[in-house]
Amino acid sequence: MEAPAMDYSFRNQVYRLLQIQPELRGYLETMVDCEAQKPLADDSDGWDWQAVHTPVSVINRLIVLRLVDQVYRSRSYSEYRLHALAETVAALGDASVPIKTGPVDVDSLFRLVVGHERIKSLLRYALLAKGAVHCLLSGPPGTAKTLLLSDIGRLEGAEFYVGSTTTKAGLVSLLLEARPHYLVIDELDKMQANDATPLLNLMETGMVTRLVHASHERISLPTKVFAGCNETKSIRSELLDRFTRCQVPAYTRAQFIKDVPQVLVQCEGLGTQMAIHVAAEVVPHSIDIRDAVRVARMARGDPQRVCEIVQCLWPSARKSSVVSLKHPSPKQ
C-alpha cells in the first residue's frame, strides 16, 4: 500500500514550534516511541498520559497547538494520539540539527569601520530585531561595504558567500546543512538570477526546499540576509523588494583625509604621521580606501616610497616633496 503524501505545512509547523519551545522535544519523542512500539489499531485507539510519561497539562497544551488529538474521553480516563505521526517524526529530525546562533554583542561590531555611523546603527538594529530583517548595502567600490559585511560574517551562526561564486544548488545545500542564522552575501549584483531563486524563497516565506529525484526536503529557517552590491540595476526587482536598502555613500575628499588615517592605523598598524602622509598623497588621485591600503602595504613604512608608489600608480601625478616626518622603522 502506498504511503500517504507528507503534509509539509504541518511538518514545518512542528519544526517552527520546536525552534521556539525546544522543551517539547522530549515529550514528542516519547509519544513517537509509544506509537511505534504499539501501532494504533484505528482512529479511536490511543495512549494515556502515563504511557508517555507526560503531564496532562502538557498534553492539553499540545492539543491546543494541534499536535495531539484526544481520541477517547470518559469521566475518569482519556486517550490521545499524535495528530500526524510521520510529519512529527520528520520535524523532529529536521530540528535535531540546531540553528547556529549566539548572543550578538553589537558594541563590538564595526570598530574597524571609520565613519558611516548611520549605516552601522541600522545594521545593529537589524541584527537585534526579533523577526527576520534583511539588509542590502549598495554603493561604489571602496566605501567599506565588504568590511561591514565581513564583521557580520564573523558572528556565531553566520555564513559568508560571494555572489559571483554562489550557485543555486550550493546555496540550497548551505541553507539545509548549515542552517545559518545570518547569511552574508557580497557582490549580490553578480549572482545569476536563477541562482538567486532559493534566496528569494527564503526571504519571502522562510522556507528552503530541495527536490532530488523522489526525495523532497523542506525546512523553515529564521535566517537574516545581509548583502552588498555596487549597483542594483541587475538585481531582480522582487528580490530587491524584500531588502531594507541602504545606500553607502562614497567618501568625499575631506572625509578621506579625516577617516582613512584611522583605518591605516587600526587595520595596517601604521604610525599616525605615516598614515596621514599616505592619505594626503593618495587623495588627489583616488578616494578608494583600498588604494590607500595598497600604497601603505607597499611602502612598508618609508615616506619616500609612498611618493614613488603614487608616481607609479598615477604617472601624471605631480611630484610631491616628502612631508617632514620622523621616519618610523621600515616594516620588513
From the structure above, extract its key features.
5-stranded parallel beta sheet, 42% helix, elongated, 332 residues, disordered C terminus, two-stranded antiparallel ribbon, Rossmann fold, Arc Repressor Mutant, subunit A, alpha/beta
Overview of the molecule:
The chain has 332 residues and is α/β, with parallel strands linked by helices. 42% of the residues lie in helices and 14% in strands. It starts with 7 loop residues before the first helix and ends in a 19-residue tail after the last helix. It is elongated. α10 packs across α12 and α12 crosses α13. The strands form three sheets. A five-stranded parallel β-sheet has the order 4-5-8-3-9, with helices on one face. Strands 1-2 form a two-stranded antiparallel ribbon. The chain has a two-stranded antiparallel ribbon with strand order 6-7. A hairpin with a 4-residue loop joins β1 and β2. The protein folds into three domains: 88 residues, Arc Repressor Mutant, subunit A (Orthogonal Bundle); 142 residues, Rossmann fold (3-Layer(aba) Sandwich), CATH 3.40.50; 61 residues. It contains 13 helices and nine strands.
